[in-house]
Amino acid sequence: MNKKILLLCISFFCLASTNAYSKFADLSRITPTIGKQSINLWFWKIASTIDDQDDIENNLLDTISSVDPNVKIYVHWFDSNDEYYWFFYNANRKNDIPSFQLRLFRNYVQSSYYLNAVGHNDYHILVAEDKWGDYSGVAYLRGHFSLSSDDNEKIAAHVMGHMLNAQHNYDTSWFSASIMYPHPSYWLYTLQTKFWNSDNQHSVGRTLKKLKHFPDSKLIDIEYLGDDSTKNAKKYNGLKWDESRANIHKLLVEKNTIYDITIIQADFDTYLYVYDKDGNLLDKNDDGGPGSWSKLEHQDFGSAKEVYLVVSGYKRASGEYKIRLTDYKTLIIEDSDTLSSLGENNNLRNFINLNNKVWIKVHNGIWVGEITLPQRFLGKKRKVTLTVDSRWPVKVIFTVNRIKKSRIVSQGEEITWVNTGDGWLIK
Q: Which of 146, 166, 174, 288 has its CA 20 to 30 A from that of 64?
């Protein structure tokens, strides 16, 4: 099965006070969530150098932390020499019409990396040295894309405010203004990295609270690393050994996704449990991983929205550990609108970018005549399965070692293609 590994940030919060007789009855109230609230912030540079890069970044971080200092922000800077600038020739040329440039930028990112940007915690800012005509920056309100010039190192924070649902604020005081002052490059006022009025603070705060806690960047790989320890954890009854010290971590699970949960490093003999939100034990393991470490494979939580991982020790052992989640995402395509869009190569490539396996099902009345498997996509090993239950066959075009091939899949057949880097092989 194809897989994508996410090494999770395991610098978890402390548990609320819990005595040794807790039976995990109220997990959602007392338990931290895996992964802090986070933003992935992508700066795309038109120019090869941006003079105030550090100031731009720091001002934006200060602005967000003024509302919620607990949000973790991962910052990434790209220029035209970076491998992720693939096919960016239409968007990295300076254009004096900012709305046109912003639309090109959004379309490039969406077509190359996402199906869409809705619901993601990724925000993208295209940065240039100079203005776009009379504009220092523009943004989609409550969106995920914006432009910012280096004309003022606080403009990026201003457009980020708009993306987080902040409105313009005209309040000024002693040559100072809010970060949301409508003319951020105006020489008379120094912008402060704060949202002055309560409406903007509440709007931005609400947006930040809606961010997904589970790391959501599935396309441009990021590793989340950290350590945790049960040495000073609370003691619990209800585990295999009463009075065991244990850490509890909430995992927000996704549909059509299978998880492997592995202790990849520990200085003690670990024991791993998974509970549902009502405190029912779903699975447990002692030595399924390397050595005396624990591992739970092929965990399919169905329609569950949250589960709880409990890390403890064999016979009350405790110590430091690292944990890894590997997720296997499957996208099932069987509706008419989505199937009809597969004729466009980019659409199928975007589906493959986002999922380890794409399973296409056709039948009478809901059908697509031809599918082309993309040669290039983000991520590693991928799998595409086609199930045909229609009177009409489906033609699949694919490449193997740069040689174009095709396969007709007829009624009653189910064919799987696996891409290992040199093309698509029929399994």
A: 174
In the listed set 163, 192, 209, which residue is the last one of a domain according to the structure?
A: 209
The contacts of residue 344 (CB under 8 Å, 6+ apart) are none
Beta strands in 287-381 (DSSP E): 295-300, 306-313, 320-333, 357-363, 370-372
CA distance 152 to 34: 37
User: Is 165 inside a domain boundary?
Assistant: yes
Domain range for 203 is 38-209
Question: What is the number of residues in the chain?
Answer: 427
Give residue 169's Cα distance to chain centre. Answer: 31
Summarised one tens digit per residue, pLDDT across range 203-223 is 998 888 776 443 333 322 223
For residues 323 and 373, state if they share a domain.
Answer: no
**CA 304, CA 147: separation in Å to the nearest integer?**
39
Residue 127 identity (one-letter amino acid)? V
Classify residue 225: in a domain, yes or no: no
Region label for 315, one of left (φ > 0), alpha (ψ between -120 and 50) or beta (otherwise) = left
Per DSSP, 101 falls in state: H
Residue 280 lies in a domain: yes
202 and 81 within one domain: yes
Q: What pTM was estimated for this model as a whole?
A: 0.47
